Every structure is written in C-alpha cells, then in structure tokens.
Amino acid sequence: MRADVVVVGLGAVGAAALYQLAKRGVSAVGIDRFAPPHTMGSSHGETRITRQAVGEGRSYVPFVLRSHEIWRELEAETGEALFAACGAVVIGPGSGDTSHHGHKDFVGRSADAARAFAVPHEMLDGAEVARRFPYFVGLRGDEIAYYEPGGGYVRPERCVAAQLRRAGELGAVIRTGETVRAIRQDGRGVAVETDRGTVRAGRAICAAGAWNAALLGAPFDRLLKVSRQVLHWFALEPAAAMPENGPVFIWMHGRGDSDYLYGFPRLAGEGSVKVATEQYASVTSPETVDRQVSPAESAEMFARHVRGRIAGATGAVERTAACLYTVTPDRGFIIDQHPDMDRVTAVSACSGHGFKHSAGIGEAVAVLAAMGRSPVDLAPFRVSRFG
Questions:
Q1: Distances (CA, A) of 370 to 5, 22, 24
Q2: Which one, of 357, 382, 361, 378, lies nearest residue 101 by Cα?
Q3: What share of the chain in percent tops pLDDT 90?
Q4: Do 97 and 18 belong to one domain?
Q5: What is the mean pLDDT of residues 369-387?
Q6: What is the mean pLDDT of residues 267-293?
C-alpha cells in the first residue's frame, strides 16, 4: 500500500495528525496495534485537564490555544461534547520552593504565560481560594493561586474517536489491530513494516507514545522513559460540597514534583471525584507495566494527598485506572525529524502534560508533512537539545 503520509500510533497526537492530513486532502494511512480509543497507552481515563497558560513554558501556549479552537470545531462537526470550560485553578504555597513538571514557581510561570498571550486570568490568595472553592479545605492561608476561567477538561476517548471518525470520513485509511515492526527510510521514501506487510509513503509521523523508543531507536531509546501513573475515583459523601461545575485543579502542597494532587469536578450524575498525582522514580515498559491498581495504592493516595484537602471525599474507591507517561529528561516534548531519517517526524514524548496540546500538535505536524513548514515554532522541541 502507498500513501503520501503514514501515521504510526493513533492516540492523542496520531489521531489529531491523521484528521488534519485528511482535512487537507493528503493521502494518509494511520496504523495502531490496538483499536483506539483504548486503555493501553496514555489517552484514556475519562477526563484530561486543559488550560491555555501553562507553567511548562510559553512555547507550549500556541499548541493549546489552537487545540481549544479545534475541539470546538470538532464539536460543531460531530455533535460530540469534547471540551468543558469549567475553569482551572493552580494552587501553590505562598512561601518556599516548589516544583511541578521540573519547573520552580509553577504558579508564577503560569501567570507569566497568561500575560504574554493575553489569556484572561486572576491571581488569588489563600483566603479567596477558600471563599470561592469551599470544598478545598486544609489550606494554610498563605497560598497563591492562578485561576483561568477558560480552562477546564477535555474527554480524551471522545476526542480521539471524533478525530479518527472525521479522518475516515475525509478519506484517510485507518488500520487497527496491526503492529508496526520497523520504520525505515530509503531513496524511495519511508517503509513502515508491520505484521501484515509494508506501507510505503513519502513521509511518516511516529506518534506511538510509550512504543516510540523501540520504533525510533537511537537516540530516542536513550532519552525516553516510561512511567506508570494511576488514577483514582473516590466516592463523595452525599452532602459533599463539590459541585458539578467547579474548576479542575492542580494543588501543590509541598516542595517536590510528587507533592501535589490534581483533580476534576464531580461529573454530572456521578458521586465521585477523580484525583491523581504523578511519579517518575520507577520506570516500566508498555509490555511489562502492571495495569491493575492495588487497594494499597489508593489508600496511600487518599492518606497522603486527599484526606483533609477535599471536603466530603471518602476513602471508598469507586474505580481506578493505570496509564503511561513517556518522559524526556527535561520533561518537555520532542517534535522533530529523526536524526537519521529526515522523512520521519518523531512526535512526543508528552511527558505527562500532552493531551491539552495534542490537537494543535497534530495540526502542526500535519502541515509540516504536507507543506514542509509548521505553523508553530518547533525549535524548542528539537531532539538535539539533549546533546
């Protein structure tokens, strides 16, 4: 089979890239070893936080601004509810060093990005956080917070499914349940070898998440590490104050990257709150990861991060999920040509903060593949920064 572009991996970024290629009339094939949306990678779990001004740095903001526009466009095209702009609040201690995703002063960095891109926002002190969001308890009183009314959450499974559906409707070929064995480049273009044969194309976009390192080889196999993350849905007391329209939240209550929790408002008709933290200390692989979450893990999450902070949250676990982060040494993205294959674009690792950017990244790499240039500056995401 031949195409102009082949997309390997149809999760958050791959689905977005395939949709954008098809939208532009580019002959494209998308391949995934599973049947997305699925629970084997990084793009599941019902909700993902999004906000326009991100503390990871200004270079990410164009992606998320465009992503918000694309999700609204997709909602109009498909009738699916993809993006809930319920607001987003990022809370940190008012004194002492903190770190989130490897960056100090994450609250201040978020505000800096908001000012640079004219993103509507407010800065709140601890008293105002307590007044507006009375279900956040255990505040010390000296907190500082960034509040973005245009933030909220997206539904990852729905976003992936909507983009794949539109890609197919627009002419893209989608091949699921097919495992890519190797990606090679020669004088005729790119050959993607699978367990069903070979797909030839002028260019390839590799967005395989936790499988990127094995498919792309050096230097990606040295740079990309996979970590297991767990999500918890804790039951709320019947009279719990957490509303259905409250903001998503990131609450840094200590100095380290794992001394925090993030979470979501109560979803309509549900009696639980979804919360999680992150860990980077232990690494795994998509083949060996433990996809079950033990009761002990949920008990530790509740005791360390939830108890005394979310009013009405109980230790009763309604459900759990495990997902994968693929992380670079600086916890930034890689969006770049492969050093040894200039017709292959390597996309991600998303390093745990990628879904909110995914629709915009998909568009950027689709335009790059189709036209040889990106609408967003990709220089900060080059693999060469690691030496």
A1: 8, 11, 8
A2: 357
A3: 91
A4: no
A5: 96
A6: 95
Assess whether 313 and 354 both reside in one domain.
no
Measure the CA–CA gap between 38 and 349, rounded to whole angstroms: 18
Instruction: For residue 61, count other CB atoms closer than 10 A to its CB.
Output: 22
Q: Return the structure tokens found at 192.
A: 């993607």
Crossing angle of the two packed helices 156-169 and 358-371, in degrees rounded to 10 = 30
- N-terminal to C-terminal alpha carbon distance within the chain: 37
Structural domain boundaries, residue 274:
85-152+225-327
Tell me how far apart the alpha carbons of residues 355 and 340 are, in angstroms, rounded to a whole number: 28
**Cα separation, 20 vs 207, whole angstroms:** 14
Coil, strand or helix: which one is 381?
A: helix
- Residue 348's pLDDT band (boundaries 50, 70, 90)? confident
Instruction: Please give the C-alpha separations between residue 14 and each of 5, 83, 127, 355, 384, in angstroms, as whole numbers.
Output: 12, 19, 43, 11, 23
Radius of gyration of the chain from Cα atoms?
A: 21
| Strand 197-206 to 2-8 pairing | parallel
Is 65 within the bounds of a domain? no
Q: Give the pLDDT band (50/70/90) at residue 96.
A: low
Nearest to 292 by CA among 344, 357, 228: 228
Q: What is the pLDDT of residues 109-156, one digit of tens each?
A: 999 999 999 999 999 999 999 999 999 999 999 999 999 999 999 999
Is residue 53 in a domain?
no
Cis peptide before 37 (omega within 30 of 0): yes
Please identify which residue in the block is written with the tokens 């907190």. 143
Query: Tokens 């998308």 label which residue?
Result: 30
Please give the tally of structural domains in the chain: 2
Token code pair at residue 147: 């509040």
Alpha-carbon distance of 238 to 107, in angstroms, equals: 33
Residue 297 Cα to chain centre, angstroms: 22
Q: Is the pLDDT of residue 350 over 90?
A: no
pTM for this predicted structure: 0.97
CA 168 to mean position of chain CA atoms: 23
Whether residue 344 is found in the same domain as residue 269: no
Partners of 2 in the β-ladder = 200
Same domain? 134 vs 164: no
Q: What is the DSSP letter of 32?
A: E
